[in-house]
């Protein structure tokens, strides 16, 4: 019985009222599912997302949202075999689906981890340092991020129905924004199954996620300036979406990850016999055949030194000859099918267009066809004059297709790579740092990611085409101009940066973090005697003073072995334009500072695990005295038992001049 996909609308699963469209198996052509969205109340979905889902997500802290992402990833992993079984009909091999399914879950795990480590256990994210706006420090500015109060519409591509959905949901949900997911029809049955697993996990607040199995109707017409659209797909479709009047009228945030003619460059030093030459051949072949070449990052243009083009063609053809195309469930098959008969027809048409300027040198674009499945063997084309073969820089055959072309020198290689007018990824195979630098300078602006691959990283590299959750995924120009993922950078896309202005005390209370210039509260209890829940930002300890002697400096030098001239050579130190005589070691000052503010017996402070933003502002000389102010800057609970306390430390001299400043990090009992 054919499965009819359902839409998840306002907290319930709903079938289309009619107008169902069939989805065919890429292997047999049989109908595996039907999809549609007739009769849905798209305005109601938008309102439900904003009023129900958004409100619930914004009530959660970053850490609570991160734990939610972790649970969603675990739910996917626990039921991954269900998704693997469904993915065969998309034409994917087990390896292809591993990237999609477990790679998708891994993206959620990555965002969960970064959310707990890099974001506060709060709902406001402070951005950058405080800006002093008045000489007396009573008026300051501080940038912050808060969650957008709309929805995110995710329109996904067919090639990665699970990963493509989860790589957008990770940063969106961590930012506290609800999402409506619209998958590509050809593989919507896999996306719906993965979505259903997340809903059934029970960890999502009501309204956080909704799902449209068919077309999105008039949903886009009802978006506002608090909403966003994230699209993955063709440049033509992206252009149509961007031209919808509401996108411009309401300044709806729109990002697109579009098709691009990604390039790979074999550098001049990577001659036959080098590891880089072999890696290049292996990677181009892999990018042509993984997912049957249906990857937005796949290598479409392989650039090689003119003198090496014949050697590369022979090696690459031999490598491609080992590809076994067929039913991915069969033993020995290494490449499955294109996603549909429609995609097969499109790829054949594009190859015919390209072959007019770049003849096929390996494969048969008109090979055997059973009329049911969408199987298509790898095709390698070649042009010896890439500057006259304009189509290879404009037309993408979204399948196991790549074009080999020569370049004259590095400048020519960079210009050819850039002639694609913007790509998601470029890779360079070289063992020469100067080559890498030149290409970064000449080509960096045209590509969203540059992968430099060589013998040093061969065993650990994820290769040319693997987007990673900690790095931005997108590209300029033809690639769409958007950025997805990128760790916390991706989260900020779904948040609004606002410049706050006011007095330090008021802003400190509003943000829950001590800002420079805010009132300090001194108490009778040493702060190291207070548990995490008892500490409040602004609570300060001011220590007594300690005089630094020449004997202290010399003992520290002898004990540590740090005999830098500024500490031990009076004449040389006097001649310095900075010191004007012997000065105390900076780390001696830090050590004495700890001695002044530390309360030694066991207590709520469990560990000192680092310091940040250290600056030595003014040297301290023998005879100077130092004192410390230790202020609770912020706190963030990390587990039920403990949390991080960030302390603002200021070291001053006998004239109250600032000598050193830094943030101290401790782990404290709750």
Automatic annotation (TrEMBL):
Pfam families the record matches: Aldedh (PF00171), MaoC_dehydratas (PF01575)
Domain of life: Bacteria
Keywords noted in UniProt: Hydrolase, Oxidoreductase
Domain MaoC-like: 537-651
Chain coiled-coil ranges: none
Record InterPro entries: Ald_DH/histidinol_DH, Ald_DH_C, Ald_DH_N, Aldehyde_DH_dom, HotDog_dom_sf, MaoC-like_dom, PaaN-DH
Keyword flag rRNA-binding: no
Limits of the Aldehyde dehydrogenase domain: 21-496
UniProt GO molecular function: hydrolase activity; oxidoreductase activity, acting on the aldehyde or oxo group of donors, NAD or NADP as acceptor
NCBIfam families assigned: PaaN-DH, PRK11903.1
Protein name (database record): Bifunctional aldehyde dehydrogenase/enoyl-CoA hydratase
Gene: paaZ
